[in-house]
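ok so for the tutorial part 2 we go from a plain amino acid sequence to predicted structure tokens. step 1 is just haveing the sequence, like this:
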Amino acid sequence: MLVSSKNKLRLATLFTGIGSIEHALQRLGKAYEIVLACDPDKFCKETYLANFPIDKKIWVDYIQDVNGKKYKNVDLLVGGSPCQSFSLVGKRRGFSDERGNLFFEFVRVLKDMEPKFFIFENVKGILSNDSGKTFEKIQEQLKSVKYDVKFAVLNAKDYGIPQNRERLFVVGMRGKNIFTFPQKQKLKITMHDLLEDNPDFKYFLPEKGIKFVTDIKNLKKCYTQINGDIALCQKRNQQFNWHGDFIDMNKYYLSEKVKKYVLATGTKNFYSKAETDLKVARPLLSTMAKMHRAGVDNYITCGSKLRKLTPRECFRLMGFSDSFKIPVSDTQAYKQAGNSIVVDVLIAILKELL
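step 2 — the prediction. this is what the tokens look like for a chain of 354 residues:
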């Protein structure tokens, strides 16, 4: 145990995002104190402060402005520099990209801060970038500032979250590294267990979206998935590119045959004209589950049967509890979920560290 359970863990984060490690510590019930948070994204800051009401002086917008020597008594430093430079779906410019070079700022702060241990997270593509030379450089840099490092690619689906999300985790300690990565766990839930009961109709796809999502080429290439048990890896731009997970809402929809019957002209025993989406429902009948009688039962129309995940569902698939506030627009919420670290993976790591 690296930090006494009686003491608060002193935490610093770089590329903070919305606070995955903070929420992991909350869920673990571990007492902690935030001494530094750093991220240039104003929307991330808004979400972070809504959930972790720290003194705004603790927040620093740019990592270049962080003076690590001010935080010599930090226990844990957590960060994951922007992954776009190393991602398999990006241009993979590595350290030649300005965002890739932010890793060296992480090392600078790490050297000056000297925390007891750190966690660094990034896409697994960083391992193969530039034929492996990029990650060799990363290891050299971390060792040069006197940290013994261990690394592994962990998948969220192996740690309690039904999402196929592989990420590289590097854990470093000053002196001999006694850390061992957590064992895989049997997945006990599916993505369907994390869905909302009554999503807003705005999350249903228009006809153009349905055609793209159901295109056999996209399904075969795993760009899209419908009603999967394990979610595809979330992306920061998932709201706009129609890639990812979609839900088929057929359960409570009428078949075309029954739909024609329901909307057919009524007989003298029923209303002369069938109506849907009534403002005041007709009396519910005990037989309504078995019978469809035009003009008698209540029906709701919806232009599409296929919908995307809601922001709350995306946050659930990243391990955030429903108590976690989402104060930003849907656009920013999807981006924040796609950029985040899966909380349950961090919990598994923290259990080994603490």
